[in-house]
Design the sequence.
DNA sequence: CCGGAACCTTGTTG
DNA sequence: ACAACAAGGTTCC
């Protein structure tokens, strides 16, 4: 059983770009659209010119306006971060890359899986976990599994998770689910808390470091000022924003043989929040998405200088 | 608090 | 063919 609905767009959205931009790892192409499991639903999405068609299986609620943050005032955000010529150019070159508003549990799990990993495998691992622990839902594309609940995952065994191909992350996922279930943290309640509190709370969870905490804050907990720093953003900053960093931080970023210490990470992300303002996360999203193009080095990096 | 190594697995590279 | 390396980092020492 399903219902079909459509949404007329009055704000830029590029569905495919947004869903495949590594903010989330639960959507796969099917036919001319995308299918994904989130909450109590399996959702199929199809974009035409100015319309999003969506079909919701499983009886749950799902709202594209919420998920794609179409309720944000896009012009205001663009104006806010568009003072930066690089970001402005990126947005103009391809409008419609949106920041998602995901379920915090799902987002947290997927980003714990994302550590020291690549997009394709993260998607595969997520689907494996869904298949092993999520309820089945019938769709016209066959049976699809829901995203597993916190409860079902906390009852998993380590071996089952290893069987999903999570590798050494299996232990983090299990500890994470159990830590949350023990009641230490209510993720939903974090939505209303300020950035610093959200960050420090998430950092206390197993498998969660500064980068994952920032991603979860940005993509599921309303912290639009969050500016996650991964290897690609690191290169973008060293390459295009050295003047913001200062001599010391620039040299630390530039030397990729070393990973970022916690204090360095914090210092840099703080600088970027100061620079871009309350919508720094939108700017980060643009810079990340285009990072491979922006970094000349990205194409020659393998030639081991 | 800081620096460095180890870490599952898969796909790509030379 | 096949060893080496990278992939949206975190943990442990």
Sequence:
């Amino acid at each position: 059983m399903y219902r079909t609905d459509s949404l007329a767009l009055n704000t830029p959205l590029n569905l495919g770009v947004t869903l495949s931009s590594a903010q989330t790892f639960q959507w796969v192409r099917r036919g001319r659209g995308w299918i994904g499991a989130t909450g109590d639903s399996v959702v199929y999405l199809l974009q035409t010119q100015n319309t999003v068609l969506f079909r919701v299986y499983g009886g749950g609620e799902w709202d594209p306006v919420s998920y794609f943050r179409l309720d944000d005032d896009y012009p205001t955000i663009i104006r806010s971060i568009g003072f930066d010529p690089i970001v402005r150019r990126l947005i103009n070159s391809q409008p419609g890359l949106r920041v998602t508003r995901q379920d915090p549990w799902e987002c947290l799990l997927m980003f714990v899986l994302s550590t020291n990993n690549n997009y394709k495998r993260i998607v595969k691992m997520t689907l494996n976990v869904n298949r092993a622990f999520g309820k089945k839902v019938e769709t016209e594309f066959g049976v699809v599994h829901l995203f597993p609940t916190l409860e079902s995952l906390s009852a998993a065994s380590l071996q089952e998770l290893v069987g999903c191909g999570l590798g050494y992350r299996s232990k983090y996922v299990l500890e994470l689910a159990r830590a949350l279930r023990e009641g230490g943290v209510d993720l939903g309640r974090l939505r209303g808390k300020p950035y610093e509190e959200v960050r420090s709370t998430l950092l206390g969870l197993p498998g969660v470091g500064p980068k994952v905490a920032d991603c979860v804050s940005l993509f599921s907990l309303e912290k639009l000022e969050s500016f996650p720093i991964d290897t690609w953003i690191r290169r973008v900053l060293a390459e295009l924003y050295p003047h913001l960093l200062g001599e010391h931080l620039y040299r630390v970023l530039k030397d990729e043989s070393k990973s970022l210490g916690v204090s360095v990470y914090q210092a840099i992300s703080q600088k970027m929040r100061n620079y871009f303002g309350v919508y720094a996360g939108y700017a980060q999203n643009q810079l990340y998405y285009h990072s491979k193009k922006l970094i000349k080095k990205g194409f020659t990096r393998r030639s081991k200088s």
In short: Chain A has one domain: 2-221. Chain A has 19 helices and seven strands.
